[in-house]
Amino acid sequence: MSTAYQIIVCGSVVPDPLQTLEPITGPALKNEMMLPAVLDPWAAHALFEAANLAKTAPGSKVWLVSLGPKAKLQQVMMTVAQKAPFELVALDGSASGFTEAADVAAALADAIKTIPGLDMARLLVFGGWESASRGAGVTMQIVGELLGIVNQFQGVDQLTIGADGSLEILERIEGGKHQISKCVGPPAVLGWATGNLPEPPNNPQIGMTNMRAIMPALQKAKPAKIGAGGIKFTSVSLPKQQRQTKIVKDASDDEIAKELVEWNTNG
C-alpha cells in the first residue's frame, strides 16, 4: 500500500526578476514594495514537485507555508493557486533579502508545528535549495534541524519512491555531477533545484477551490518579526557596468580567437 504523505512546501514571494531594483541606504531596496511579486522560482519548483508526488500517492496533502507581506502574498496567490492544490499557512512579515536566515527558519518551523494532525512518519518538507532573495542556502537546513529531521538532501533534481516506501533522491554535487542518495522513508527535508517538471498550466477550478481557503488563511496570518535589526549599512551602490568595444575590420578567425584567449587569460 502506498504511503499518504504530508508534504509541506516552504516558499515566499520575491520581486519580479525582470524588474530592476536599486539599493538605498539601510536594509532595503528602492521601489521593492511597489514592484510586482512572484513566488520564489526555487520554491515554485518545490511546489510543483510536491503536487506531482501528492497526485501519485493517494491521500497525500500539500501545504504551502509562506512568510511575506499579506498584500504581496494575496497578489501572488491569485496566480499560484491555479497551478496546484494546496493549503496555505501564511505568516505576515518581511520577505526582503535583508533578513536573517535563522529568524526566517524559526518562524517557518513554528508555523509547521501548528499544522493539525502533523505526522512525522509521513512528513516531507520541501523548499528551494536556494532563493531569489534569501540566498543564504541554509534556511531549509535550519528548518529541518528545528523540526528534528536529520535526513536532509540539498540540490535535489529528482525524487523516486520505491516499492517499499524508500526514497531515492538525485542530488547535485560539484563538477556538474549527481549523486544518488537513499532514505528508508519520511521524515525528510528536500531542498529542490530545478527538478524535472515543467510549470503546470493554469486550472481555474483548482484556483477557485484553493482561494476559498487561501483568503481566510491570509486574514488569520500571524505577524512574524524578522529583519536585520542592529545592522547599519554605511554605503550602497549598483554594480558598475563596464564595456570596452573595439571595432576591427578584416580580422581573421585565428586572430579573433587568439585575442579572445588573451583577453580571458589576462582579464
Structure overview:
The strands form three sheets. A nine-stranded mixed β-sheet has the order 11-10-9-12-8-1-6-7-13, with helices on both faces. Strands 2-5 form a two-stranded antiparallel ribbon. Strands 3-4 form a two-stranded antiparallel ribbon. Strand 3 and strand 4 form a beta hairpin. The mean pLDDT is 84. 35% of the residues are buried. The chain has 267 residues and is α/β, with parallel strands linked by helices. It is globular. Helix 2 runs antiparallel to helix 5 and helix 3 packs across helix 4. It has one domain: Rossmann fold, CATH 3.40.50.
Feature tags:
single chain; 267 residues; alpha/beta; Rossmann fold; nine-stranded mixed sheet; two-stranded antiparallel ribbon; 6 helices; 29% helix
Helix content: 25-40%
Residue stretches low in confidence (pLDDT < 50, at least 5 long) are: none
Fraction in beta strands: 25-35%
Q: CATH-wise, what's the superfamily?
A: HUPs
Strand order of the largest sheet: 11-10-9-12-8-1-6-7-13
N to C succession of SSEs: EEEEEHEHEHEHEEEEHEH
Oligomer: single chain
User: Would you tell me the overall average pLDDT?
Assistant: 84
Counted up, domains total 1
> What's the main sheet like?
9 strands, mixed
Global Rg: 22 Å
- CATH class label: Alpha Beta
Shape: globular
Distance between the termini: 60 Å
Instruction: Quickly give the CATH architecture.
Output: 3-Layer(aba) Sandwich
> How many strand units?
13
Brief summary of the model shown:
This protein is of the alpha/beta class and 267 residues long. It is 29% helix and 25% strand.
